Amino acid sequence: MVLFILTACQNRNNNDSKNENISQNDSVLTWIQLSRNNDFPDEQRLDFLKKAVDYTYTISNDSLKANYFSKISLSYLRLNDSFSFRKTNFKASELSKKSNDSITLAESHWDLGEFFRDITVEDSAYYHFASAHKIYSSLNNQFLAGRMLYNMAVVQGDIKDYTGSEINTFKAIELLEPLDKYEQLYKCYNSLGAVYNSLGEYDKALEYHQIALDYLTKFDDEGSRFVTLNNIGDTYLNQRDYNTASSFFQRVINIENLKEKDPTTYSKALGNFAKTKLHLKDTFGLKNTFLKVLHIQDSINEVVGMSLTNYYLAEYALAKKDTNAALAYAKTSRSLAQQSTNNKRILESLELISKLDTENSAQYVQEYIQLNDSLQKEERQIRNKFARIQFETDQFIEQNQLLAKQKQLWLGVAIGLFFLAIAIVSIISLRIKNQKLKFEQQQQESNLEIFNLMLSQKEKFLEGKQEEQKRVSEELHDSILGQMLGIRLVLSGLNNKNGETETKQRAEYLKKLQEVEEEVRTISHELNDAAYQKIHNFIYSVEDLLKSIETTSPVDCNLEYTTDLEWDRLNSEVKINIYRILQESLQNCVKHALAKNIEVTLDANENEILVGISDDGVGYQVKREKKGIGLKNIISRVQKMKGSVDIKSKIGKGTTLLVKIPIQNKLGTFDTQKEARNTEF
What we know:
Order of helices and strands: HHHHHHHHHHHHHHHHHHHHHEHEEHEEH
Strand content: 5-15%
Low-confidence stretches: 1-11, 13-25, 529-535, 672-681
Helix content: over 70%
């Protein structure tokens, strides 16, 4: 006899796959928890669930409502209320699809799989487990996907699809081993032991049962150990190693209080122990043992076990040559097997009955053949259906994996393009900034060069003027004055003539010549002094600027400057910045201030150069007025020279701009290549 202890994974824990953060005081959850309390009678537990259902219908959030209906349907399943289970499970599934809640939908399939397996509708059970597996695989939840594969393997074992069961069990192990899920791994290896036991590969069966026992040491579940020991004994029983089998069954039934703790496992082990004694022809007290097993099974309504025990009693009676008793037990076994839809036991009972009831043997044989053929055909159909479901599941998983890879690929491409765009924009931005800086630098250099050329031109002009003044001075001094001196000497020589008239004329001419001589001398000295005075090119340029302003607008400009500072020795960059500041300020006075009079002062002290521009224009409020580009340029130029700008203005009172430029040192503020002229007459 082959025992299948291939129970499906236990119903999911309350916390499995549930991510809601729901308060403990929530009424629905409280009623659900009360319904799962075995201390209350079933009627009261169902009443708690009804309250939970009524309250859940009032919730507007579809996802939360689906979650509650899923929990409620699971509670109905545990209470064996199939109608209420199907109703609430359908509602949970419907709402989870509506709200795209994949987890709750998977749990609904899971519960339906458990339900259909309990009522032995294997194809529906397999379909719903496979559907749950699809969803968990698409969510990359390897733990729950592995559990669903195990459940699928259990259903396949139920219909003798041992190969399919073996494949799915190994797939489950492959997912669960990296997660160290010892309890689920124990169940998988225990299932493999049962599969190989059914296939007659007893050594492999024992090997996997031993691995299952090893996993049992990693978590606390004493009941599972009893089940595995019973399965090992069953394997030795099928291997016809009756003594070893008997020792394992005896280890189970000798466990203290097992009969009270787990009557199902105890009755199975005791029945198997009695079976081994029958094979060993040790029949002393054997019937009483079988009857004891029947009594326990009847007390817990274990119909499948009762069918098996009656079959054992039939074999025992047959061994005792009590054909009538054997036939009665065989028929009882058949009837109980039909009640529990245990087709295997029905076939075994029919085979035994056909041997015992010789008169109706042909009828029983025919019934056996028809049922066997029908079962084989049904099993083939179910296996084919399983294969189609598995194929669709594999296709679904492969498609999800392909979509995931494509998603990753497109995400990578999008990220790459994003960073490429940023890089391109950054490069273009840097190039634009560099070009702008180069342009500004070139413009500054050009302005400086133009200003230097302008100053150089003015300097050459003044040098030419000075040369011409010197030449005229020399001509007056050396030529005219010499000639006049000669005339004076000639006239002086005529003084020897003593005529009264000549004497009077000579005196007049001499006086005039002396006047001319004095005048020429004076002019000569004035010209010569003017030629060698310090004529400032920079100041001259500023004066020209003021004259151009006066020419083009109705404004009077006045310039005052100190001669204590050698303006032409200032650094070219400082001079051009001061010139541009004056130029911009004068334009503002004319354009915006509407001034009539402008005062420009160029002064200096030991530490600073002071540039002031005052007007009598309309004025403005300095703090409120937005700075224009002209004023920003002025401030920018002053900042380059590490100076400061102070603006004072009042409405109707005009504006005063004061620029202070620090005199850092001769190398920073003055041009050391130019020497001041020091000329003497």
